[in-house]
Amino acid sequence: MGSSDPEDPSASFVFEQAVRKKMPTKVKVGRIEDFPAGQVRVVDADGERVAVANVDGQLYAFEDRCSHDDAPLGEGELEGCQVECPRHGARFDVRTGAALCMPAVVPIATYPVQVTDGAVAVELDF
Amino acid sequence: MSMLADDKQLTLEPAASQRLSTELQEPGWAVEGRRAALTLYNGLAYPKGSDEQWRRTDPERFRPEGRAMLAVTPTFDTLGDGALDNVLHRSLDQALHQDEEAVRPFLLETVPEKFAALNGAWRTGGTFVHVPAGRALETPIRARHDVAVPEGPGAFVPRSVLLAEENSSATVIEHFESTDGDLLAVPVVQIRVKQGARMQYVMVCRWGHGTRAVARLQAHVEKDAQLRVLVLGIGGSVMKTFMVGDLEGVGSKSEMLGLIFANGRQHFDIDSLHNHLVPNTSSDVLFNVALNDRSRSVFGGNIYVAPGAQKTDAYQKNRNLILSDKARADSMPKLEIVANDVRCTHGATFTTYDADQRFYLQSRGLKDADARRLIITGFFQEVIERLEGQVLVDWLSSLMQEKMETALGLPPEA
User: Fold this and answer.
1) How many beta-carbon pairs below 8 A join chains A and B?
2) Integer Rg of chain B from CA
3) Are A12 and B177 within 8 A, CB to CB?
4) Measured between alpha carbons, how far is B46 from B48 in angstroms, rounded to an integer?
5) At residue B368, what are phi and psi to the nearest 5 degrees?
6) Least Cα separation, residue B396 to chain A (angstroms)
7) Does any CB of chain B come closer than 8 Å to the CB of residue A87?
8) Among the partner residues A14, A48, A72, nearest to B49 by beta-carbon distance
9) Which residues of chain A have a CB within 8 Å of the CB of B409?
């Protein structure tokens, strides 16, 4: 466990674990069957709530949080490639995260999706 | 060494609450206290994202069910040279037996909030410091809690009680560390500063990745007493902190300071409240928050001035330094003032890493990394220097420097 001297950070086993490099995290979130066409499903990806939308067979992942007022976007309606926030009606393009109408002006985060043999994984940026 | 035997693995569920009482051989009133807390806990609905207090921090991240309870005994030392005789300091589980009179009123105080009740029912470990009347402690006492997170989801539920008797003064530090892994930490810290006493309390939260913490601080400041609290938020994945200061005595003063430095996807949510209950009290809140990568902070500062609490002087400021375009800070002050001769001020600022400042420093020969370090260091020093005691100030500065190196990938200072 190393030195127990709390003044010596290099000896602390906890400090070693606390140093983290900036690396993207790939998280498995389910199988392709879990994400039906035309719908949005919210999954837990390493503690993050991520919404996954199936637009004509193509999966797009974005943060489940409206950039206007933190509403759960995943509960909103999906129309084509646009999701509408259930709280105040802001719309976002799920492919790019772009805010399409007020009251949202800031884009939402989007995450690359990888499908391998039917297994779906989302790549978080941090 | 923990008071709980190693082979007694307890899971966070109703039966464990009474088993903890039995294992720790608690007196009757404490057993009753746990029972009352459990009843309160069961009667309260689990918070929802639509609740005002949880609007920007997903309460589902703090689900307690089925977690393995971890018993951690704090280790004590002093920050610098100094004697600790006559100042009782030990794990709360032990203090329950050795200083029952002092501990009892704290454990019987209930707060009708889900996680406070959780702590009331399942508390284990935690710090107890009792400073006798008139004693002025020159050196800070530090209690360190090292939590080793097991394979499966764990729970760490300490209760700390800090009591400064009349005209005493002390600085108490609680340093929380945990290894990486899924840990729910629910620390509750209760502080009472009696007439004429002065207390400084520093809570260093250097949790590991995967720790979700809901922390609560409940403080009572009596006549002519002073309290200063600093919360250092640098670790963990998500932390929700409730800080409540009750100014109960005329002439009392409470200062709540915070330093948050977040990176990656860290999320910090602070909910502070100062209750001005009698005339001639003052409060001061200063939270400096620096955010990098995709981190987030939420600051909700509340001031309540009761009817008749004239000549209240309440101040509140939240400064945010946004270091990347994906970071976000929210700041929401709330004032509820029911007296008519008071001064209540609040302010919030949001700045980015200033290109002009950087250019100026670089034009003076500083490398970009050093210029960044200087600007951010200055941002934190504003808060750190409010604390008394050079050894403490130096130690806190070094903790923030370490975090800066991690968060910004800066090489160690030459």
Assistant:
1) 55
2) 21
3) yes
4) 7
5) -55, -45
6) 11
7) no
8) A72
9) 22
Please name which of B320, B326, B309 lies closest in space to residue B275, comparing C-alpha atoms.
Answer: B309
Q: Is the peptide bond before A103 cis (omega within 30 degrees of 0)?
A: yes
pLDDT in tens, A21-67: 456 789 999 999 999 999 999 999 988 899 999 999 999 999 999 99
Residue B142: beta bridge partners?
B77, B173
* Closest residue on chain A to B266 (Cα): A126
pLDDT of B326-339, one tens digit each? 899 999 999 999 99
Tell me how crowded residue B233 is: count the other CB atoms within 10 A of its CB: 27
A5 touches chain B (CB under 8 A): no
Query: Distance (Å, rounded) from C-alpha B96 to C-alpha B88?
Result: 12
Residues 6+ apart with CB under 8 A from B139: B78, B79, B80, B81, B82, B83, B84, B171, B391
Whether B294 and chain A come into contact, CB under 8 Å, resolves to yes
Residue positions counted in chain A: 126
Identity of the residue in A20, A70, A72 whose CB atom sits nearest the CB atom of B264: A20
Residue B300: strand pairing partners: B271, B332
How much helix, strand and coil, in percent to the nearest 5, is found in chain A?
A: 10, 40, 50
What is residue B8's predicted lDDT score, i.e. its pLDDT? 60
CB of A32 closer than 8 Å to CB of A58: no
- Residue A10 touches partner B, C-beta closer than 8 Å: no
Spatial distance between the Cα atoms of B91 and B73, rounded to a whole number of angstroms = 6
Starting at the edge strand found earlier in the chain, the sheet holding A119-124 runs: A25-31, A119-124, A113-116
- Of the residues B146, B293, B408, the best mutation for testing chain A's interface (the one with the most A CB atoms within 10 Å of its CB) is B146
Distance of alpha carbon B143 from alpha carbon B126, whole angstroms: 9
Phi, psi of B291 (to 5 degrees): -130, 130
Residue of A4, A12, A42, A48 to mutate for B, most B C-beta atoms under 10 A: A48
**pLDDT digits 0-9 by tens, B104-156:** 999 999 899 999 999 999 999 999 999 999 999 989 999 999 999 999 899 99
DSSP string for residues in B382-408: HHHTTSS-HHHHHHHHHHHHHHHHHHH
Instruction: Quote the minimal CA–CA distance from B384 to chain A in Å.
Output: 18
CB atoms within 10 A of CB B62: 21
- Asked if A18's CB is within 8 angstroms of B206's CB, the reply is yes
**ipTM here:** 0.78
Q: pLDDT at residue A11 above 80?
A: no
Kindly tell me the sign of the dihedral angle through the C-alpha atoms of A56, A58, A59, A63.
negative
Q: Around Cβ B128, how many Cβ atoms within 10 Å?
A: 25
* Ramachandran angles phi, psi of B359, nearest 5°: -60, -45
Q: How many of the other CB atoms lie within 10 Å of CB of B216?
A: 21
- A17 and B144 within 8 Å at the Cβ level: the answer is no
Nearest one of B264, B300, B263 to B285, comparing CA atoms = B300
How far is residue B411's CA from residue A21's CA, in Å, rounded to a whole number?
13
Confidence (pTM): 0.91
